[in-house]
Amino acid sequence: MKKLGIIVVASLAFMGAVVADPAVSTPTAQAKTKVSVVSKKSMSTTKYQIDQSKAKGAYAYSSNLKKKEFKLSSGHNSVFYAKSQEKIKVGKSTRVYYYIKSSTNSKLAGWVWHGYLVKPILSKSAVAKLVASGQDLNPSSTLLKQPSAFYSTYRSYLEKEFNMTGKLTHFKNHQARVWIADPNLKTYADTAMGVWNKALGRKVFVTGSSKNFDLVISSRPSKQWDGLNDGIHLYLSSTALNDKTYMDSVADTPEIRALYNQYENVAEAYKDAANGSAEKAAYLAQGHTLYDQLIAAQKAAAPSATSYWEGVTVHELGHSLGLDHTPYLTDIMYAETSNDGFSSSVNGKYSWNSPKDPNDTRRETPTLSARDVNRAKLGMELGYW
Q1: Which of 1, 39, 247, 371, CA to CA, is 20 to 30 A from 299?
Q2: pLDDT recorded at residue 41
Q3: Phi/psi zone of residue 166: left (φ > 0), alpha (ψ -120 to 50 degrees), beta?
Q4: What confidence tens digit (pLDDT) does each residue in 70-88 have?
Q5: In sequence order, what are the beta bridge partners of 93?
Q6: CB of 147 within 8 A of CB of 51?
Q7: DSSP states along 256-321
Q8: Vertex 358, ends 354 and 360: CA angle to 5°?
């Protein structure tokens, strides 16, 4: 049964971008620039909050931007209602402003550039209820469609609830350059990169070079793990890669697990039985039979070497996207235990020593579950890639 690892080496804080106030670029620009209302119309009442990461130093104005009504930072925690909008021409540029009014403070009212507004983030209790109502460790479409402030506010909570590691590999514009240093691994790497790119609908992993890369794929000897990712290096075990019989021992099905548990129980009973007794001889014979059955079942269920190592590489690239392990056999990010002793233990929703879906067969092909994909999408929202 394969062992896959992750070594977390860094965690970087995600910072929102600062956007300049489009109404005025200098203290005197507004007085020199012609401002006119192009159109004005009502809109269905919508709740908003100020996106403070973008609205630093910005203001709400009167119509035609003639007067500053209030500084947007003063409405930090306020909920505003917008009922009308107007299109304003400032010089040669046209912008859309919403008229907003605080639900609790009538003095906080005025016209605001729509780019400074975000829909109110959910309360902690609402988020907890949403998480609890969804599939375990699988962020719902609702959770994946929240404003940026939501992810910065609930970062720690979301990381815990969905077993996320944080930023591991460097990405620029949602893209990481991958250098395949060992040409023998090119097929595995190209397939694995393609699997994630297709699932996420964009080229997240692209081919790099020895001088231009964010992640290096190579191999090194190990009997402890099949794959390991430290954020900069993704290793496959050369020990296992060069073992022509290795595929005969990696399959993980309900039948194999049942035979393995029976064999372990008989082995313990054999140790406890009196030497020379008929009971000890019976346990020995039973153990040999179970062992032969176990080996036969593993060989029968063995994946092809190509498919298996492609799957291992998909798993390790998942760590680069910020995903930690799960206890679900049907996820490519599955691990037998939350703390295997050779890689960083999972600091997630809960610990485990056995699969949550024991009646399923382990995913050992270069494919992804919906849980794998949705967690990766959450990683993007959290700024990991």
Answers
A1: 371
A2: 94
A3: left
A4: 999 988 778 999 999 999 9
A5: 90
A6: yes
A7: HHHHHHHHHHHHHHHHHSPTT-HHHHHHHHHHHHHHHHHHHHHHHHPPPHHHHHHHHHHHHHHHHT
A8: 135
The residue among 7, 3, 2 whose CA lies nearest residue 344 is: 7
Confidence of residue 340 (pLDDT cuts 50, 70, 90): confident
Tokens 């050992």 belong to 364
Q: How far apart are CA 63 and CA 37, in angstroms?
A: 8
Residue 120 token pair: 């109110």
**What's the confidence (pLDDT) of residue 28?**
37
* Predicted local distance difference test score (pLDDT) of residue 4: 54
Name residue, tokens 């104005």.
Answer: 61
Tell me the CA distances in angstroms from 306 to 5, 242, 248, 341, 344, one per residue in order: 20, 13, 14, 28, 27
Would you call 13 helix, strand, or coil by DSSP? coil
Please give the pLDDT value at position 2: 53
Q: Decide: 152 and 14 in contact? Cβ < 8 Å.
A: yes
Residues linked to residue 205 through DSSP beta bridges, in sequence order: 176
The strands making up 233-237's β-sheet, listed across from edge to edge, are 4-6, 227-229, 233-237, 215-220, 176-180, 205-207
Measured N-to-C along each axis, helices 370-381 and 186-200 cross at an angle, to the nearest 10 degrees, of: 70
Radius of gyration of the chain (CA): 28
* pLDDT per position as a tens digit, 269-323: 999 999 999 999 999 999 999 999 999 999 999 999 999 999 999 999 999 999 9
What is the 8-class DSSP label of residue 152?
H
Beta bridge partners of 36: 89
- 130 Cβ partners below 8 Å, 6+ apart? 122, 140, 142, 143
Of the ranges 5-9, 10-14, 369-373, which is most confident?
369-373
pLDDT in tens, 179-189: 999 999 999 99
Q: How far apart are CA 347 and CA 351, in angstroms?
A: 8
Please tell me the distance from the alpha carbon of residue 97 to that of residue 60, in angstroms, as a whole number. Answer: 10
CB 27 within 8 A of CB 59: no
- The token pair at 306 is 């190509």
Rounded Cα–Cα distance for residues 56 and 147 (Å): 17
